[in-house]
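Hey all, quick one. A colleague (J.T.) asked me to put the NAP job into the tracker so the inputs and the structure tokens live in one place instead of scattered across chat threads. No bug as far as I know, just bookkeeping. Sequence used:
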Amino acid sequence: MDFGLTDRTAFVAGASKGLGYAAALELAREGCNVALCSRDETRITTAADDLREDADVPDDRVLPLVCDVTEEAAVQDAIQDTVDTFGGLHVLVTNAGGPPSGAATDVEPSDYREAVELNLMSTISMCEAALPHLRSAAETDGHARIIMVTSVSAKQPIPTLALSNTARAGVQGYAKSLAEDVGPSGITVNTVLPGYTRTARLEDLAEDIQEDTGQSYDEIEADWADQNALPRIGEPEEFASAVTYLASARAGYVTGVALPVDGGRSKHVL
Ligand SMILES: NC(=O)c1ccc[n+]([C@@H]2O[C@H](COP(=O)([O-])OP(=O)(O)OC[C@H]3O[C@@H](n4cnc5c(N)ncnc54)[C@H](OP(=O)(O)O)[C@@H]3O)[C@@H](O)[C@H]2O)c1
């Protein structure tokens, strides 16, 4: 299937590893120019080198950018650098690290503020910076997409991840509002909700559980897998396939959707 992504430009945040890297890789394989960012120069340039090799694309198709997505000015600069380098922007994938573990009363109000900055405000800043360019892309190429990475915890909160549950729900509300607002311009807005997927974030969460329960990593992973209709942990490539579909020309009539990629962990009918 042709996804219509050849020579489109994508900006993927939080992409030095994990889900962001997997999404950037798949988009590059589908023919996109890809700008990818993270907070650390060495990590993001190494990721860009890996991506060029893994996707087998020329050096000038991949642009590594140092950008902490909680800093509005840095986000503006990163989006502008992307447009200056590639001549436009068609696909924005908002993403960042996850907030620390903790039950609702274990964490402080300041922790909630930080989580909202990390996961909600960063999403808003990235969309604000990208929207003028996405409007142009919709007008000239009929192809403009926003995909926000949230979490399965937005649909079905995880008791030990109160910060994530809270901030992600905000992103879902923002996504739905934005989809209505920018739909008439031809821009689609969707969210992808990963369930337990094999990345460094999962190892961090497992360490927290290990400290509390003394369980081995394998036992923790088995518990996570048991919660799913498909009794296993997801792979980043499986998540990236969903992002790529939503980024594609094929998804032109799909907007305002919250798509879990969670092996059936969410138990709601709708
Ligand atoms: N993996 C899962 O099972 C799972 C499940 C549900 C939700 N999620 C959520 O999905 C998102 C991605 O998950 P992941 O598993 O890929 O996490 P990860 O392996 O921890 O990777 C996070 C990425 O984000 C970058 N990053 C962190 N803070 C940033 C910031 N302020 N500005 C720019 N880049 C930043 C990191 O790079 P640098 O350190 O180089 O900046 C890294 O590339 C997270 O929000 C996570 O909570 C993951």
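Adding what we noticed when we looked at it: The chain has one domain: 9-198+234-258. Residues 13-20, 37-40, 43, 68-70, 95-98, 118, 149, 151-152, 194, 196-197, 199-202 surround NAP (CB under 6 Å).
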